[in-house]
Amino acid sequence: MLKRLRIRNYALIDALEIDFSERLTIITGETGAGKSIILDAIGLILGERARADQIRTGADDAVVQAEFDVSERPEIAKRGQEVGLDLNDSMLIV
Hints:
Radius of gyration: 15 Å
Shape: globular
Distance between the termini: 13 Å
Strand content: 25-35%
Largest sheet: 4 strands, antiparallel
Mean pLDDT: 89
């Protein structure tokens, strides 16, 4: 389960951190508020190709980081350990 999303210098976002609840998290807002940018950032976490033009104007780099709780997915935790990932407290950080 996605627990936290951190975005820095991505598109129009200077810095953003979202903590997702275990129940339901809804992202709403006016047109142009940045909902699509957040979804695009999640796409990067899921393997979409990053482009240099996605870096915020004036910044040298961008960071998109997601924390997943894999405690209820033992197959993910096992595979992570097989490839050398340190899953601290069953959290996978991408």
